Amino acid sequence: MASEHNPVRVLLVDDHEMVRIGLAAVLSTEDGIEIVGEAGNGMDGLRLAREYTPDVVLMDLVMEGMDGIETTRRIMEEMPSCRVIVLTSFLDDEKMYPVIEAGAFSYLLKTSRATEIADAIRAAARGQSVLESQVASKMMNRFRRPPQAVAQPHEDLTEREMEVLKLIALGKSNQEVADELFIGIKTVKYHLTNLFGKLGVEDRTQAAIYAHRNGLAD
């Protein structure tokens, strides 16, 4: 995994050669980022991910054969420490939500500036998710629901667990949560374990989706 002394190793997966060429050219000029490979389809992307074990995969969604959703799912199954950043032209629900559920760490549109993509790559290496503003807005609108009379799992969370949940829903890393709440990393991990169990979720992504769905990340 990347550190302050090692560049973030990035694999590009996109079926448009010119897009890959452009991304490679621009990102190679950014400090702390190294392009380790390029793939034009999902199968090659999975193969190169196995070969190079990148820190971050910049993933297109619509490709012939195995699409970005399935490629993301398989990469996350085999390499859970890898961060998949979706970079796509599509904002429709049938693509966005499945790839997030498959394990995508961040979701950006191809209209994003090169500096925004580079910043998202560095953020992913630090454990921080980035959602393009339109994506975050869609998620909020989709998952926000009116209060219900039936008790919800999050009602069992302590005040501190709720604070941690809200911060990870905003894409904060464990260190950032610790710094903001003035607690230690071990304490953050302890609260995460507790709130995962109470919410019935398995990881940070599912917890973040739960928070957005229930209007807890406002």
TrEMBL record:
A Pfam family annotated for this chain is Response_reg
Keyword annotations = DNA-binding, Phosphoprotein, Transcription, Transcription regulation
Q: Which domain of life is it from?
A: Bacteria
The record's Gene3D superfamilies line, in alphabetical order, gives: 3.40.50.2300
> Cross-referenced SMART domains, in alphabetical order?
HTH_LUXR (SM00421), REC (SM00448)
Any one Gene Ontology BP term:
regulation of DNA-templated transcription
The Response regulatory domain covers 9-125
Chain positions with 4-aspartylphosphate modification: D60
Entry GO MF terms = DNA binding
What residue stretches are annotated with the HTH luxR-type domain? 150-215
Q: Which PANTHER family match?
A: TRANSCRIPTIONAL REGULATORY PROTEIN YDFI (PTHR43214:SF37), TWO-COMPONENT RESPONSE REGULATOR (PTHR43214)
Q: What is this protein called?
A: Response regulator transcription factor
**Which species?**
Cohnella terricola
